[in-house]
Design goal:
By secondary structure, the protein is mostly beta strands. It has no helices and 10 strands. The protein has one domain. It is globular, with a radius of gyration of 14 Å.
Length: 112
């Protein structure tokens, strides 16, 4: 039977949950990831999903929301960290993603 949800001291992670990262130098890259599987007690399989611009502050900045189930790229398997306010995963050495509400918008900028 597939695992549907994992519980942590700072929240839960369930199938379909969305994680967001915000990173970059002189620009703010915002990436969204959706949980497509859970394994063991602390591991999630995520896949990057596309984003939709919901607000334009200028030609180079605005706000994005995730587009659920609109996958791009290959799945990544990551251990869930519970040392922050919300569950998080390390996507790469420079990119940390945190669980977010999929209805919440997030800032991006293509130039600092």
């Amino acid at each position: 039977m597939a695992i549907q949800s994992l519980q942590f001291r700072n929240g839960s992670v369930s199938l379909g949950d969305v994680f967001v990262s915000s990173w970059g130098y002189e620009q703010t890259n915002t990436c969204f990831y959706q949980v497509i599987a859970l394994r063991g007690k602390k591991t999630a399989v995520l896949r990057r999903i596309t984003a939709q611009q919901v607000k334009a502050d200028s030609a180079m900045s605005g706000e994005l929301k995730p587009v659920l189930n609109d996958f791009k790229g290959e799945p990544v398997t990551r251990r869930i960290c519970e040392n922050h306010e919300h569950p998080s995963v390390s996507i790469d050495e420079y990119e940390q993603a945190y669980k977010t509400d999929p209805n919440e918008s997030h800032f991006y900028s293509t130039w600092g």
